[in-house]
């Protein structure tokens, strides 16, 4: 597909022929040509946002351009294309993300808005599309395929069938279907997933995959089913098998983890890398402030042994071709003038970044002269009628159980929040009809409360979560984004819920009966604040958290406690869920 | 795009999982993986025409396949894709071409039916599409962009505007716009060409280029205008500039000529070849019998210094990606099972060729058990009311000229038919009101007669054409395919025309007052005969021609005498045409 549909062909041709002045000429640069692999000096003429000529030595302009940019002998390369990223993970809205990301050389992102999709459905994704229009960053959207992640085990703010996916696919700037995570149902041709994927197939659109650990016959069945990319390989062996079987590998290194060593190892021995591109998946504001974006993934993979030039090609031309964009990802006549000037092909911050020929970044600073939109009203998505008092945070013993002690399925694991959990029965005292954990320092309550008005909630006892007093709560809880509250005392849990409801969502730490907030009023996921402010606020609240919790507990630790697709037991608004058997586990036991 | 739309996803997934038997397993082969560049042993399972698994060592089948093919340790590679070919040049109809071409390993061709388009318009192209459906060969069609080649300088059987092109683009199996030869009008944004290209752009379809000798600002303007492939580069310098500027280079070596050395030279120093594919353009029946098709182009480019493995990738994966086919050109789950087994990656004839998992070729023989369609009626496209007697072949002197001698613009050139011509005034005798060339052995008449009923014709005097007696005529005359007749005596010229009209077109040699025919009743371009018969017939008629002409005169020599786009003077039904100035040159002068 051509990514910018309306171009004044006549004007561009005239500029190419030298009949009219170009808007900009970038001179004194060495082009790294991602099509041929060569490096040679050029001057590049831009008109109306498009590259109209790439002149080599001896090819003079007939008529002077309106402006010039001196590249001072540095390298000129296309802007980066991120093949898979969740905007919501940055806690920024699309127009602010644009400002944070462009100075690092990324000029196009292909986003999966499945976080806001889970909260607000199609309307949330429309907001992302609309807000992205205020930005210089080229933001394409993929229609989320798995809202909610697992039907029946949790309730989100929306549930997509092929109907919603079809509605999204027909919108401007929606270019395919986002990471089809439910590979089990793809493989077994379950009807809902079949129908969703079919909407993409019948439109000849891009189908993004997601299949950690999948190999052999399962991988083959998944590929036959349509999705043919993956950014989730865990082992070198898996990467090797996937690319050999025609899967596009999206090299990833995110704020949540870095698999560069295994993935690079899996590509060893390959002669061609056409099916390799680069993505960030989840990046936090602080990383965007300090180490960057796609450029940082490149740094990681250079460390892991891949070639710098090859990585720049993967992040540009290969990414564009993976999506079928044929006027992005290279520097040649007819291509959109998204370019960056870099001192070396090593992932360092660009000297200059251009979008459609406009200078938007210089030495890490955003320099485009556009204004942030005034703050706008956004509906409060936190609807928790079931949490009206501290009593609602107590784990009451159901009728028919003993009034003195009760056997509870306690969620145990490694001391890390991130570790997979299983349940172990434990006899706990009962006080005033509710489970009493005050006698065991290692225990804590976790409540997952539906925040879309259903009134459902689950309260369970966890062991060794690392929070020693107060409470930690958040409206970010993948993928349904119900509210998770971790608390010793019911009063602290209730304070979190009350404050998060008042401010339309976010993260709340209670210490000494006082609430400390990171307000995320946009769907309970994002702030309207810019990158630096969000990053600072997270740092401040994290400092308070550190005084009441172990060092490995983070303000985002509750965000991964409800992921119903991971191979352990997690908490959803409908109960404790075993991700392996995809069934419920009771909170109480015999 | 996915090339075969309707697949039974559920069935394929079951076969991938090993739940049902595959139709075929190819075993004992070494896969050359065009995605990674590796070579390793595999077994490939095929179900319902699709590859469902590519099993490496240690990956066993759960259930036996319905049939097996033993590759005897040879290489397995995808079927070739020809990125640009004119079926009509083979003189075979699509279903016969299929039988000739498949045993050489080519399983997909992207055709430009502009020859039949010039003769019969949209209806002719519909015939090609319909007839191709009887074949195993995957035949995609591109909508001809330049019918006729140059408006106003010749009249063909049809004239396409954007309306006809749009009608074609909306047909099944039409995948883009064919070689946009009229680069001058693209560059200068002339309305008709602009509108034609725009039909492709607005459908996001493939735009094939064609721009010999085009470089610098003209090349940039052409690329900005849309077409971004070329199979017509004449020099190494041109190739280098084109690919650096984002043009896909289609390596070609056709029956009409071999530019492999210059083109290979132009790619020297490149590290990546993603934008290089392979095409044949024009291949004659005899070459298809003896040296092959895409495989022969590969042989030529290996001789010219390119790497064999790289060439197999160009002819498969690169070609598919150039067109945006994402289930062709590789051997991986979900891809169409078009494959070949070869003894070496050197362009030699495959041991076996499969289309959708069906064995169609073995050791150069077509082995599929389908029958040729019974011969069918086809309209006679030869309509020449202006050629009713020998007198119609005389070059009469117009009123107002002397009755004794006349100054004629004689078409002169090198002794080769192929050489570019210019005119030189020469005083010739007049006899009974017509130019008399009987006194000069070196002179001969050429008549180009419109064969679509307009009644127009041009008769001119040529020098040193190499035909010494009799006549040579053909209804193949690029691109309008009017009738060209070369003759010493008017009677011989008339006999040619009469015979060609009777048999609905073809090639006719008159020797000693006797006509020798190659009948091409399908639009005056193609026969219904198979490759071997056509080849034999050509050889026989050529032998007769050799007795009355120089050795460089071929039965197809008249086919290139009316190409109004070449930089010399040619003959059309409307007059003598200067290809450089795109204007007429008079037959008589002062």
Would you write up a description of this structure?
- The structure is a homodimer of 590-residue chains.
- Chain A has 590 residues and is α/β, with parallel strands linked by helices.
- Chain A contains 15 helices and 30 strands.
- In chain A, strands 1, 2, 3, 4, 5, 15, 16, 17 and 18 form a 9-stranded mixed β-sheet that branches. In chain A, strands 23-22-25-24-26-27 form a 6-stranded antiparallel β-sheet, with helices on both faces.
- In chain A, strand 6, helix 2 (94-101) and strand 7 form a beta-alpha-beta unit.
- In chain A, helix 3 (114-120) crosses helix 4.
- The mean pLDDT of chain A is 95.
- At the A-B interface, helix 1, strand 3, helix 7, helix 8 and helix 9 of A face helix 1, strand 3, helix 7, helix 8 and helix 9 of B.
Key terms for this structure?
six-stranded antiparallel beta sheet, 30 strands
Write the layout of secondary structure elements.
Two copies of one chain form a homodimer.
Chain A lengths: L8 H9 L6 E9 L6 E9 L2 E7 L11 E3 L4 E4 L1 E6 L8 H8 L4 E6 L2 H7 L1 H11 L5 E6 L18 H8 L4 E7 L2 H5 L3 H12 L3 E4 L6 H9 L4 E2 L5 H9 L3 E7 L2 E2 L1 H7 L9 E4 L5 H6 L3 H10 L4 H16 L15 E4 L9 E4 L2 E5 L2 E2 L38 E8 L9 E10 L2 E2 L7 E7 L7 E7 L7 E4 L8 E5 L2 H13 L3 E6 L2 E6 L11 H16 L22 E4 L2 E4 L4 E3 L5
Parallel strand pairs in A: 1-4, 1-5, 6-7, 7-8, 8-9, 9-10, 11-12, 12-14
Antiparallel strand pairs in A: 1-2, 2-3, 5-15, 12-13, 15-16, 16-17, 17-18, 19-20, 20-21, 22-23, 22-25, 24-25, 24-26, 26-27, 28-29, 29-30
Helix pairs in contact in A: 3-4, 5-7, 9-10, 12-13
């Amino acid at each position: 597909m051509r990514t910018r549909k309306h171009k004044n062909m006549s004007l561009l041709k005239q500029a190419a022929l030298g009949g009219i002045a170009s808007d900009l000429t970038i001179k004194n640069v060495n082009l790294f040509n991602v099509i041929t692999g060569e490096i040679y000096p050029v001057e590049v003429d831009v008109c109306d946002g498009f590259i109209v000529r790439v002149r080599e030595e001896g090819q003079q302009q007939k008529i002077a351009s309106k402006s010039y940019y001196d590249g001072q002998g540095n390298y000129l390369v296309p802007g980066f294309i991120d093949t898979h990223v969740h905007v919501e993970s940055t806690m920024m809205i699309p127009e602010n993300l644009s400002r944070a990301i462009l100075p690092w050389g990324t000029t196009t992102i292909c986003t999966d808005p499945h976080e806001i999709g889970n909260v607000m459905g199609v309307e949330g994704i429309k907001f992302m599309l609309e807000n992205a229009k205020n930005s210089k960053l080229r933001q394409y959207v993929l229609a989320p395929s798995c809202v909610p992640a697992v039907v029946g085990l949790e309730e989100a703010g929306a549930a997509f069938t092929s109907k919603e996916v079809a509605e999204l696919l027909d919108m401007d700037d929606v270019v395919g279907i986002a990471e089809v995570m439910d590979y089990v149902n793809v493989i077994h041709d379950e009807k809902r997933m079949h129908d969703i994927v079919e909407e993409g197939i019948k439109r000849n659109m891009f189908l993004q995959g997601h299949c950690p650990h999948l190999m052999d016959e399962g991988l083959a069945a998944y590929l036959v089913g349509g999705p043919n990319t993956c950014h989730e390989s865990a082992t070198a062996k898996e990467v090797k098998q996937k690319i050999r079987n025609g899967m596009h590998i999206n090299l990833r290194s995110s704020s949540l983890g870095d698999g560069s060593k295994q993935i690079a190892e899996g590509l060893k021995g390959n002669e061609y890398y056409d099916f390799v591109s680069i993505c960030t998946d989840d990046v936090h504001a602080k990383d965007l402030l300090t180490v960057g974006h796609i450029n940082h993934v490149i740094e990681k993979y250079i460390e892991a042994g891949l070639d710098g030039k090859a990585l720049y090609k993967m992040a540009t031309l290969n990414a564009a071709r993976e999506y079928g964009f044929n006027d992005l990802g290279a520097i040649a006549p007819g291509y959109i003038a998204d370019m960056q000037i870099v001192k070396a092909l090593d992932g360092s911050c660009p000297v200059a970044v251009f979008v459609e020929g406009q200078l938007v970044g210089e030495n890490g600073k955003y320099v485009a002269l556009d204004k942030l939109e005034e703050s706008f009203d956004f509906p409060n998505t936190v609807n928790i009628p079931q949490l009206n008092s501290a009593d609602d945070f107590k784990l009451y013993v159901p009728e028919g159980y003993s009034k003195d002690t009760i056997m509870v399925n306690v969620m145990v694991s490694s001391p890390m929040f991130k570790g997979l959990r299983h349940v172990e029965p434990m006899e706990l005292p009962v006080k005033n009809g509710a489970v009493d954990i005050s006698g065991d320092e290692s225990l804590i309550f976790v409540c997952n409360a539906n925040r879309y008005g259903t009134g459902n909630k689950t309260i369970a006892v966890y062991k060794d979560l690392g929070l020693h007093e107060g409470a930690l709560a958040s409206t970010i809880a993948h993928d349904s984004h119900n509210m998770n509250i971790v608390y010793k005392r019911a009063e602290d849990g209730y304070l979190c819920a009350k404050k998060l409801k008042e401010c339309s969502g976010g993260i709340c730490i209670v210490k000494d009966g006082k609430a400390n907030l990171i307000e995320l009023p946009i769907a309970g996921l994002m702030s309207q604040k810019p990158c630096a402010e969000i990053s600072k606020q997270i740092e401040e609240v994290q400092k308070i958290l550190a005084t009441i919790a172990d060092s490995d507990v983070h303000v985002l630790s509750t965000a991964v406690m409800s992921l119903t697709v991971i191979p352990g037991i997690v908490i959803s608004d409908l109960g404790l869920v075993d991700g392996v058997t995809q069934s419920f586990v009771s909170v109480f036991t015999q």
